[in-house]
Design a protein that fits this description.
With 265 residues, the protein is of the alpha+beta class. It has 13 helices and four strands. Strands 2-1-3-4 form a four-stranded mixed sheet. α4 packs across α7 and α11 packs parallel to α13. Keywords: Transferase.
Length: 265
Amino acid sequence: MANDEVILLDFWPSMFGMRLRIALAEKEIKYEYKDEDLRNKSPLLLQMNPIHKKIPVLIHNGKPICESIIGVEYIEEVWKDKAPLLPSDPYERAQARFWVDYIDKKLYDSARKIWATKGEEQEAGKKDFIEVLKVLEGALGDKPFFGGDNFGYVDVALIGFYSWFHAYETYGNFSTEAECPKFVAWAKRCMQRDSVAKTLPDQHKVLEFIKILREKWMTCMLSGGYTLWGSIISIYRSLRNSGRHSDMLEHRIRSFWTVRCKADT
């Protein structure tokens, strides 16, 4: 498959897009990465994912594969001769899929409440988040990775969340390592892999992004506005590589959302 054309439509802080980036890196598959502006979605994204219009989308020889974990399984099936991600045993494969389903149903929503809410809802989100991590610690046990000695499917599905942990801890005022030391030790082992280390963005960069996102979220919810948050992403992307001080970025965002949220009410 040396002549395959592989394209990934993604957005850099997406832990779901990170799954595909890591899987492709593990398989050593060359691909073209396209970072989407989620306010002005590209014609290619709208064409390739007309139902949900969301990232990530893996495009293989012109054919789209939508949804992150479906994409990971597709990568595993197409390039199965290199760095297997799923175990060969049917029962172990079923267990791996069970835990990925658990992650998708439990982790994201509880984590979002930590940075996107306040008060009792935030505390409930933090409690749920820590409980989910403890359950995952139990599934990990004393193994180096969820699949045993080898980095695999569950690890790929989960490790992208780690790039958001500094933000969760900042807003939730807790230490993941103090609460779930085995989980953090696992994450640090994953970070020793090139496929992970070169994919996950810096946690402080993610925190800067979430600060902007949270301010927009709070401002517009308080004012009764529901403006699409993609607008904030457009501004962030225009400045993120400019080297300008974050205060300038925050000033631009505050000014923008003051106007937009007033217009929504």
